[in-house]
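Sequence in, structure out.
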Amino acid sequence: QVQLVESGGGLVQAGGSLRLSCVASGRTFSSYAMGWFRQAPGKEREFVAAISWSGRNTYYADSVKGRFTASRDNAKNTVYLQMSSLKPEDTAVYYCAADRSLSQRLAIVMREYDYWGQGTQVTVSS
């Protein structure tokens, strides 16, 4: 079992930056690919970014490409999402998730992730 706890959300003005963190419990964290998703009010949860177990491979949604960067520190059991040039449409609850499948392919759909955090609110004001 893996438990995930996100932090780092908050209120920021458009154009600003935030860094989200997701700390995982369990010794198997370094084996798992990790993903970031977000859910805005009244909308479905959507894929944001994914990062391989080593951190060498990443994949981003088109809407955040060039603005968001996923990274991880396996020694700290932590994955990060650096968000820059934030827009009001980035406002959402952000979730991290763990994929225990050991697949070489980075997953972009929710059903392929096995563990989820409780989410952290990001609000971008215009």
